[in-house]
Structure formats: structure tokens, C-alpha cells
Queue: 2 jobs
Job 1
Amino acid sequence: MKISRRSLLLGMASAPVLLRMQRRPARPKLAAICTTYFKYSHSQHIVDRFLEGYGWNGTWHHPPMDLVSIYIDQIRDDDVSKSRLEQFPTMKLYPTIAEALTLGGSKLAVDGVVLVGEHGRYPRNEKGQTKYPRYEFFKQIVKVFEDSGRSVPVFNDKHLSWNWEWAKEMYDTSRKMGFPLMAGSSLPVTWRTPSIEMPMGARLREAMCVCYGGVDSYDFHGLETLQCMVERRSGGETGVKWLQAYRGDAFWRAHQEGVWPKDLFEASLCRSHTLKPAREGFNDVRPSVEQMRGLVKDPVAYRYEHHDALMCTMVLMSGLIEDFNFAARIDGQPGIFSTQMYLPMPPARTSLANFFSPLVNNFEQMYLTGKETYPPERTLLTTGLTAAGVESLFRQQARYDTPHLAIKYQAPKASTFWRT
Amino acid sequence: MKRIAVVATVYRYLSHAQHIGDRFLVGYPRDGAWHKPDMKVVSLYVDQKPEGDQSAARAKEFDFQVYPTIAETLRCGGSKLAVDAVLVIGEHGDYKRNDKGQVLYPRYEFVKQCVDVFEKDGVAVPVYNDKHLSYSFEHAKWMVDTSKRLKFPMLAGSSLPVTWRLPDIELPLNTEIESALMVGYGGADVMDFHGFEALQCMVERRKGGESGVAAVQMIEGDAVWKAGAEGRYSKELLTAALSRSDSPQGQTIVDGRTQDLVAKGELPKLVKNPAAYFIEYRDGLKATLLMLNGAVKDFNFAARVKGAGIQSTQFFLSPEPNVTYSACLVRKIEEMFETGKAPYPVERTLLVSGILESCLTSRVEGQKRLETPHLSVQYRAPQVSQHART
């Protein structure tokens, strides 16, 4: 899948030279391409951090770059972008994606693109997937790159697309054109309690994330939680062979029958800070399976096998917990390796969704250095897994083979989660 | 199996007695497993039975007795001490406040009655005292001195020193701390105590160990901003501490934005009645606790450390109702009950009890600086980190 710059140039003699070496500007200019901008939307969390700065490493950090243009697909009644545009006149609103990238001119005029296609009113398809226009936005961005003979780093919030083929095309395009691409969730980069990292080269057989939320939504975050840990295993990532979803009664049956390891499930729950008390008058009590059945109306699991035989299970337990917990068994280590990926989630617990800070900080580095701090292949795979989970549910929870997810990559050696 | 007596002001849902006591009854999450202490609660005393009292229901379900007096609770109705450890939880319940605004929780009175039994029966067992030892330093000192005299281990204090930290930092032992600052929220004589405990568990690790406190002053209102402008506390440390907060108020509540509250001058607009507690340690270290109700809703620490710049972290108070931070505390209590050794010195909480009392005295005495020769409490921090990190 890797294509060298040289072979690409040789092979694309007739194409415009898109890949000429760029000198990194000292202070990059960024364009934000957003679906919508209201309080606690992803755009607000992300774009505000470029405008106002954010707490980082024990000081107030202003990213050394300027977000100079913004495109917003849907301006809602509760829009808050207007106040930002007034307060930060260096950021200008453009009516099209192309104009946001060219700053109203004819050529690409920014050094990086922030693509936030989360939230907003978009139709759902028959499988329940919200058709967020990330791919459509991305295509328009790439069109400007092509027309300008120059490309710049792109960050894509959350999964690449609800549609696997499109996601693959997005990834392939970035590789073909040679621009850095980062994507994904905050879960891989947020605080962990405890603050631990999967040892590089760990031998894993089973891993699990027990979290909450809905299908084609937080399932993606659960999959990213798993993937950022298991990708560090011995041999690196090998891709996924098949996935099977379990929901409702089938979920409880599988749980009882031990389709996934109960001890990892239990360890995950024991990392939660939000375990719903199953008994009145108690604030923190271990629930029985019967009690969990009473609390969780729509349990969902995605169980899947990687090509190297690692088994992973992502479980959505809305009603029981409201956090993301990881557990795995590491060969040669006693006990279970477990942690929580902690999201200080507003408005119940906090006022700021500060898990966006390490996410922004990671892709900020990409705009400065031109290097991805973690591989987009992670999110390509979790995008495919999210779609595969939806597909398996759509096919009456049938096992779904995923030959297209034979995605191989190596995790970065350095930890990229929030620990300073 | 160790036998535990619980001596509490009240036992109702979300009271400290329920948080802590229940974990001995039903277990708690620990290191990614559900841990059940190898101990049995055998007796309970509750001073008040308000609406929602759970004492009888817990006693019935978990097979122990509620006794009408503390002595009977410790002797389980017999003639001799019949427990291996005592949990004293004098938090919550309907108790008067004095003119300094201190709630007169009867912790000293409770511990004194335990000590009476220990002395009469010729045996003493470990005691955990929840929160500060007493509103009165004199009483607090008696409690600690008595534990030394009768040689029973004692642990006390808040969950803050043992909860998760974001980030997970610890100051190295014998570090040179140039100045320290804690930002907290909540009311006087309640939440300020937690702020002091968090501050103290960090600064006690400094070079030379804890030396005690020479003077304190508590000021309120605009004087707090004036003191900041005059450099009495560091703006840089305040920025560092607030950079760790997940709960800025004001414009963040309105439209979600991040805010540099210090640089933007938002604090005076958000905080109607700020309070600053200034601590002058005997070895020269100066520390400040700022209670900024209206600005944030979490506890954040910053210190300037020689050779390591500014170190800062949030003491993470995990959400209600689980308050898993209290599981971190119960782990330490259990450790003392099990081993007979307090994992960290009760002198920390003795000093904090005295600092808090003197600060509240300063407040009612015209917010003047008070010398505190009685607070020459000296001790060494534990070698090993005690906060949640596994």
C-alpha cells in the first residue's frame, strides 16, 4: 500500500506535480471546514482551541498558527460562530469550501485543513448511519489541492466516512498525493486512569473496551480505544478478518455463554467512575447480570478477530456506565491490564471537554512538522470496523467477513496520550 | 477476619459514613478488580438518625448491631473491647456552627470515647478519623498525642491526597519548592479543608521535610485581587493551576469556549467573594490557597520547583454518586487496619486542622496575619507515593 514519492512522480508523469517539497511556514495558516458550530459541537471544541488557546502542560497554550478561514455547512439557530467571527476578525467565514481554502483567491492559500464533519442535521440511511459529509468535504478539499498543484496536511475529526469505500478512497488519496492525514477520536489521546501505556511488543490474545453510547456513534470511540492499545502488540497491526455484532437478548446470551471473556468485562467495569448503582441507597456497588439487564436496555457488542488471531470485543452498555474502559490479557504478565480513557465530559461533570486538547495538540504538530503523530491507518481500520458493526447488525447480527480490512501498520513507539 | 466498628454522625445515602462504610460492606473497585476487604463490620453507632437513615437497614442486611453508645459499639455489647479497628466518620449531620463558621462535628468527642474504652480495657486498636481531626487544634493535638501515648495507629484526612491526578505527577522527595498555590471551590470549613490537604500532601515532600507553620492570614473580597496585583501570590502559578481545570465558569457555561481566566481578567467578574489563605511555613516556604467560587469547580495545584520549573496537576474528584475517589481512601484505611501502620502520617491532617482553624480565626479577627507558634508540627512525608496510580 505504501507508495514512495519517487515512484509516484515517475508514474504520474502527465499529472500535475502535486508533491513538490513544501517549505514549512513558520506560522501556518489553517482553514476549518465544519458541518455546524454550536455550543459543545465538535467544531466549537476544536476551532475554539485555535482561537482562544487552551490549557496545556501547565500553562495557557496558543497554537503557533492562525486559523484564518472557516466554512460552516449549517448555521443553526443556536450557532455560536458569529461571536467568534466578530471577536477574531483574523478568521473569515467563506461560503464555499474552495473559497475557505483559497481565501477567496484562485489557489490554495492555507497550510493546513481542519475538517470537522460531526454534528448537524444530516439524513440517516436504512442502516442507521448518519451521512455526515466528510467524504464530500474531503473531495472538495482535494479538488483545490489538485487545482493548485499543492497539498497540505489534513485533520479529519472522528471516522473518515460512514461509507467504507469512501473512507478508503480518502486514505488512498492522501497517500497518492503525499499529504499528511490524521483522523479519529479523542479517546486514544486523552487522560488515562491509571496513566498507563500498553507495552510495545506485548503479546495479546484478548482485549476489550466496555463503554457506552449508540451504534454509528460512540461505537467508533470504543473501537479507537481498543485499537490505540492493541496496535502496539507484537508484530504490529495485521488487520481484521471478521466481525460479529450482538444486540439485545443475543448479547446477554453470548455474555452468559462466555463468548467474550467475563474477567475482562469485569475488569473494565472496575475501571469505571460512573457505574450506575444497581440498588437504591447504594452509590457504588457491583451489579449482577440480572441487575445489568435491568439497567441496560440496548446492549451491543462487536466481537472481531484480527489476522494474527487477537480477539477484540467492544461493548456498549448505555444505562450502566458513561465512560470508556479498556482491559486486556498480556501473555507473561500476571493479572489483567486495564485502564480508563477518561473524558471530562460536559455538562454533567465539567464545563470544558478538555479531551479535545490532546487531540488538537497532536494534529497541531502535524501542521508544524508535516508528520503524523500517529498513523491514519488506525482510523482507517476503526472506520471499517464501525461500518462492519453496522453491517452485521443490519444483517441480523450475522458474522461479517472483512477481507477489505487486512490493514497492516506499525504503531508509533512514542506514547501520544495525555500524561503531562 | 478483622472486626470493624463504625462510629458515625449519620448514615444515610451519600453521607461520608455511607460512602466509606459501604465499601467495607460491599467492596469497591481497586486495581481493575472488585475488591472485598477481608474484614467485617460488626457494630455501628450513629449519633443522629435523620430522615433517610440507613443504619437499621444496613445492620439487618449485613448482620451487625447498631448500639446506642460508642462504648457499647466498641465492645459489641460486652464488657471488653471487641473490635480490631474503628472508623470514626464525623461528617454530615445537623451540628451547630461557631462564630468562626466552623461546624462543630463531634470528632474529638467520638475519639475521646473510643480512647476511654481503650484505656479502661487496656487495649487500643487502629482508628481512622474522616476529614480534619477537629475544628479545634487543641482537640486535634490531643487526639494525635493520645494515639502516640497509647500506641495505636491513626489515619485521618481527605480523599484529595490519594485520588487520581491529572496528570499523574508526584513531587520528588526532598525537592526544593520555591512557592506553591492551590485553587479550590466550595465553602469555608468544608471544602477549604480539602484544598489544604491537597496542598499539604505536595509541599510536605520538600527538602528538610515538614517544619510546621509560622503564620497564617485569610483575606476575602477585593483584597484578594489586590494581593495578587501586589505579587503576594504568583499569577504564573495561578495560570498554571487554572490551566488544569476542566470546569471554568462564566463564558464557558454560555457558549462552551476555552478561557484563559487570568490573562483575560475574568476572575474578578466571576468570583463574587474570593478568599485567599496565606500560609508561611517555618522554613520560609510560602503557599496560598485560593477559593474561587464562581470561577471553577475543581481543585488544581501548581508549584515552582527549583530545577523543574512549574509543576501542576488537578486532584481529580470523580463524579457522583460513585465518588470513586473515596475508594482510593478506603484502600488506605484498609491498609492501616490490615498492617497496623498508617500509610501516611496523621501529622499532615493535624497540621491542616490547625492551619484551617487559624485561618478562620484570622478571618474573624479582621483578616489579620496571625503568628502560629502552636503549629510547629514536624514530620516526614512517606517515601512512596500514596495517590491512585495503579
Job 2
Amino acid sequence: MAPKTSPEIGGMGHSVKRKEDPRFLRGLGNYVDDVNLPGMLYLDIVRSPYAHATIKNIDISKAMAIPGVLAVITGKDLEKYNLHWMPTLMSDTQMVLPVDKVMYQAQEVAAVLATDRYIAADGVEAVEIDYDPLPVVVDPKKALLPDAPILRTDKKDKKDNHIWHWEWGNREATDQLFSEAEVTVKEDIYIPRIHVASIETCGCVASFDKVRGKLTVWMTTQAPHAIRTVFALVAGHVGLSEEKIQIISPDIGGGFGGKVPVYPGYVIAVAASVLTGKPVKWIEDRMENLQADSFARDYHITAELAGKKDGTLTALRIKTLADHGYTDAAANPSKFPAGLFHVCTGSYDLKAAHVEVDGVYTNKPPGGIAYRCSFRVTEAVHTIERMADLMAHEIGMDAAELRMKNFIKPEQFPYKSALDWEYDSGDYGAALQLAMDRVGYNELKKEQAEKRARGELMGIGISSFTEIVGAGPSKHFDILGLKMFDSAEIRVHPTGKVIARFGTKSQGQGHETTYAQIVAEELGFPVDSVLVEEGDTDTAPYGLGTYASRSTPVAGAACAIACRKIKDKARKIAAYLLEAHEDDLEWEPGKFYVKGSPDRAKTIQEISLAAYTNHPPGMEAGLEAVNYYDPPNLTYPFGSYICVVDIDKGTGEIKIRRFVAVDDCGNIINPMIVEGQIHGGLTMGLGPALYEEIQYDESGNILQGSFMNYLLPTAVETPNWETDKTCTPSPHHPLGAKGVGESATVGAPAAIVNAVVDALWHLGVRHIDIPITSAKVWKLLRDAGVRG
Amino acid sequence: MAKVPIKVTVNGEEHGSDVEPRLLLVHFLRETLRLTGTHIGCDTSHCGACTVVMDGRAVKSCTIFAIQADGRSITTVEGLEQDGKLHPLQDGFFQEHGLQCGFCTPGMLMTGLAFLKTNSDPNDDEIRHAISGNLCRCTGYVNIVKAYQYAAQKMREGGA
């Protein structure tokens, strides 16, 4: 799509250089640990070495004897204020600090408040805690056995470790199709616990002004407004009142979903500041971040796919155990405890599907939050893309051909899926064909056949994913009752400059640039004259925040609608100034002119000035608008990825030779930023596919608790991603945009796994759980009698 | 804890200070000197967010005590821009969209500053190995490699 605006205006379609970069490049960003207030105290946290244990005694005397240690806060201290437990975003409950027992290793047990970061750490070492270990449950299957110890003894009526059962779809129709199927495939797929591991950890600076009763918290949050409301609801009884709570989300060093939840450290820091009247800083270290913050995934899936011998897919049946750790602290829309997992029919026109998920408690940290994906969409895509590939290989059909045969066709949109989603638009075949052309699919198939004849291991893997983002319509989407709208507030100043504020919060996505481009697109103000602000709840309009690729679909739409309100008023002002009827005015980016007389024109800057100096009689002065956008539907970005791997027979090492990613996110605001999002998303797909996993031993000890062994991809492992795009606008979004931040993370792992399994299929390999480490491949090769 | 006097030259300016022997260089830079462009990402010297250049070598300032920097010369991200002109590396990251959240960026820039002094005409593979001690969770590295190439070319042409 050619841009409608000039490069000087810089509206949609221009690769405008980022407005946030000049401060980051000079080391002048303002991240939470850069906040430094006079008299600030430091909080550090004592954590449990046990995964499940009774706390017999906490001795703080040695810690309190250290000069500079001011207090040691325990669960019993918070209990006096009824702040020792807090609600999770899924209406479960979570300990802030325990009173009687711990539920996972690295759980917060006490907090040390000191005058200095180092002294606080000394204090943590000096707190002595006497534990009595309890039986540990780390396996969700064992957690459901009748003799399993019951973990949530705080819940009076709880007689097991089962949290909830959720199912969706037509069971009878699905079972019927399975009984009639010519061919079925079935696979157990484990999608392991992983961690977003943003390079900046979590933290906050809480500052309570005792005289004014105002609490200001700088914190690493992707959803500052919702956090403000949660604080007001949880701590209203101790005097915090929402109009006097200011959450400031400063520059954030990556979020990816990990900065949505409320962690105990934030609450303890706030409590410490309220009690002392002094600013209190709490910053996690990396080990705390990996060991205690909300994790993602941990889905034990059993999937079955039914079809005909000609490759026609008919039905999908899924059962899943969702390991939520000791509390359900996910951040899903409240009606959907398994998130949007029921988008698992993917890009295919299935007749019926049925999906069941059971949430389970174990002695692990809480969560079930996203890892750069919209509420369990990665789990859904991984499942259907693995199963489609399995079916293709099972019946001896080319994996691309099977996909082409079963894709929802362009003319079927809007398409009602077997699990009740209404897909907005798509042309899946075009994306896959482009990816095949770009990678040279047919030549690669020939090369693979030749190599296989020589005993060399090469695989080609496809993933044709459909995402579901932009939550969401208020009819179905809320978090703790807060509807999932988002907002924009735009003010045009007399000199033709603009400030635009949003309820979202960028964590690196470049909102300061892209939102400004939307304003430029809609109103013709040069992008340089638009200042975008987010993240300060005292100034920004209320919104649910940035996660689940919702900023462009929801707040971006709010921005466009608010601009259109301003444009309507600008038209009236222009008509007044030009002494013309408003219906006789034409718009071109940056000005209104009288039809047929292009020199009779008023620029948007002239109109801005007139809004304050010469506005029409009877009209309110000023030029500003607010919009709270309630999306009519979700958006459905899609794409096709093709991965080519070569496997070393001697070591099992997987080398990604090529990776072609074709994405379709509808109309694009900034192509440079979109490509950057895809590069990053692909790399966060590569990590879990080959390297990242958090495991626990039977005692509940975490095995990957630092960057020593939780392996993020470096530049050496990361391939030189090849990207391309098709463009199928969303029909219901005001800009035709769909969102893109997470597509690649969602789509990439299946392409990589499919490539590896494709390379090993002839050896009898049918499935490998991620991460596919060299060790796993090496063992499969040895088991198959292959030697290097 | 008894404090030790040190003198460290940071971005061309000498700073004398009395520090605890256990004070990490990164905390000296961030908290004593208030140069907060150098970031902390991991504590185990894997992520490289804290990378600074000490006597010409890229080092991870979370794994060096401030007292080890006594008498040495350090460049941080704040020292890259000269006379209001961005360093070619900074310009490269801007032009090639080599940053997103910006948190790893100072470390990436400082690794580049030392690396391009040892290899003024690197190939992509050499750049990827040079930055393998710096983790980025946002960019997928592709544009960081391009940013290094951009800077290397500018510097060969006499840009810095």
C-alpha cells in the first residue's frame, strides 16, 4: 500500500525513524532503577530454599543488628493490616508474604528494609528461618492423584489440587467425526514452562507522601491503570484512595507479558513506603526474576486430528493439563481461564472441534502468563501446526499441499470457526505460496531427497499460523471486571502541535513513533510535531495496557477515532474561515480546501490556531478529543513460515540454514518497526524451540534459575531472518491494521519443530517436545542406530 | 565497612571517591556518579547490559569491583557523543533500527566501540561472535549487525 502522506508528514506506511531512540542511544532513558529520590530506602527479599514447607520461626535479630537495617517485614506484620494475601488477576489468591507456609522455591518469605542496596542484601543473609519441609508436588499429573498432598490448605473446602475445568466446542459432533474418520493422528505434546526474561528485571520505587496521602509508584508495569485500580481495591482499607494513587510506568526494558502481574515485591515496597513515609526501591536481580516471577506455558496437551485419506481435515480433539503453580495468577480475560486456546483450529476449515483444559496446582511459582503471545495462542498454534504436519507425514502428503487443501479460503471470510471465533480476514494460501517461492520450496524438496539418499539429515518445516489479538470486545473480554477497551486523548495546541496520550504502555514497541504516525495520517500534522505520552496514570486516559498485541488493534483504533472527531470539528472551523459550506470542503493530508478551488484552503495548523483565536460563534473553543475504543471483534493476523534445518549426525546439533517468514498483519503503520517486531518475535520463537526451558527436580528445586543455564539465543545461534509480507486489511479496524508484535513468537516454534521432525521422520521420529536440544536429537539418532 | 580511595577517569573526567571494597563498578557508575546509561541485566556476566570500555577493552562492569578500576580510564555510553555529534555506532543503531526497548543498547554500543577498534572491516559472522556476550530480547540481532556494519563503514570513511 503506497503511503497517502508525504515523507515530511510521515503517516502510515512510512519507515519513520523512532522518536524514542535519541534518549536511549545516549544512555538517557529513564528505567525504574534509574529513579533516585532523596532519602530513598532499599528493599531486598528473603526467599525460601524449599518448595513446600511450614515456617516454624523467623529470627530477625541478627539482621536488625546490622547498622543501616531499619526493618524486617514478615507475613505476620502484613497480616495485621490484612495485606498478607492478595487477589490474582484470575480471582485466585496469592501470598504477599507467608504467615505459616511456603509453596515454591524462591517464594518471598520476608523483606529487609535498609538505607543501602548492599546493606539490605546483608540483612537478607542474616535473617534466620526455621522450616519444616512438606511433601512436594511438581508434576501436575501426580498432583491429581487421590493420595497427592493438598497444597491449598488455606482454602477451607479444597479437597484436591484441581483448580478448574473448562471446555469449549461440540463434543458430540467431534466424537462422531472421529468415529467416521478414515485416518486419525494422536500426539502428546508438552509445551514447557518458560520465562520471558526481559533484559530489564522487575522493580519499583514506591513513594508515599504522608501529608498529602498520595502514593506515587514508578514500576515496571505494562498495565499501569489496571494496577492503580487493583492497588485501590486491595489497599483501600488502609487508606489508599484511587485519586491519590499515581502509577508511573517509566521506560521499560522489555515486557513480553512478564510485567503484567502484580508481584509481591511491589506490594511490600508500597507497604514499606506507606509505613515509613519514605521512598522505597525494590529491584529484582536476575535469579529472583527467573525463579519467582510469573512463568509462561507449562501445558500438557494430548491432541487428536481426524481426516480423510485425501488429506481433508475434519475434526480436532484436545485435552490439556495446565500447570499453574500454586496459584492461578495468569492474566487472561476472566471468562477464559485457558485464554484464547480455543483458536486451536488454526488456519483450517474444520467441521468440528472440542477442547478441554484442567488447571492444576503444583509447588511452583504462580502464573500461566503469556510469553510474547496473546493468551495461550502459542500453545494453540503449536498444537494444530504440529498435528497438521503429523497428518501430512502420516498419509504421505506434502505438508504444504495439505495446508493449501485445508486452508479457510479467502471468500469464506468473515469465517466462523468450529470453536466460535469470527475470523475477520485472511488469504492464507497467498502467504504460504509467497513463503514457498521465497525459500525455493520445490528445489529444497529435491535437495532433501538427494541428501536423504546419501544419509544426510535435512528437514523442511512449515507453520501456517493464525493469531487472535486485540482483546477485546467488552461483551466477552474483561480483566477483574474491567472491560478491555483502550483509549486515546488528543489535544491540538494553538501553534499546531499535538500531545497524544494513551492507556497503553510501550516496552520497546515504538508507540511514541507509531501513534504519532496515526495522528499524522489522520490529521496531516507532521509526525515531528506530535508528542506521545503513556504510562502516567495522573495524565493518561484509562486503558488496560499493552500485551496480547492489543496496542495497535485497540489503542491505535482509539487514536484514529479521536483524530476523526478532531477532524470533524476542524472541518467546521475551516468552513467558517473559508466562508464555505462544510460539505463543499475536500481534505488532503494537512489541509481542507474548497472543492474546485484548491487555493482556497486552510491548513490544519491554521485551523488549530483558529480553534483558540477565531472559532465559530456558538462553537466550544479548543481542539481536542478522547476516545475509549471498544473493538467490535478481535483481529486475526496470520502468516506462513518455512524453516530449513541441517542436522549433524554426530552431535545432534541443529543448524537453521534458512528461515523465511511471511507475515500478514493488515495495513502497516511503520514497515521498519513491523520488521523489527518480526525479527524479535522470531528470536523469541527460536529460544523456546531449541534452548529455553525451566525444569524442577522432584524436591521442587529449579534447575534453570539464572542465565548460566536458562539459555537465551545469542547473535551466534540466531539465523539471519528473511522476512516478507502480504497485506489483508482488517475489515473492522479503522485503519485496517491487525497488530504484529507477537505473531512471530507464536508461529516460529512449530516451523522449527516441523523441520527437525521432517529431517528425522524416516528414522521413525514422530514428535519431539520443545526445546529440541542437541542432546535430545543425539539420543534419537543413537536409538535409531545412526552414527556420526 | 572501611572505605578505600580510588581515582577513576570516566568519559575523560577524573573522579576521586572513597568506596567500599565490595562496591561493583556498575554501582559506582550508576549510583555514585549517577551515570545511569549503563544497565544491570543479570548478575552473572551473561547479558552484557553493563558493558563499558575500560582502557580500550569492553568489560562487564557488574563483574568488576570499583577498586579494580582505580587509575584506569573508562568510557560509558554517555561518553560516546562528541561535540553534539552522535558516534557512528549510535547513528548506525538509529538508522538501522538496531534497538527497541533500549535496555541492552548501551552495552551493545560499548562492545561495538571496542570491537571496531580491533576489526574495522568485519563480516557479519565476526560481528555476531563479537556481540555473543550481549543479549538482546527485542531485535533478533539482525538490525544490530546492520548497525555495526553501518558504523564500521562510516568509521572507515573517517566519521570518527
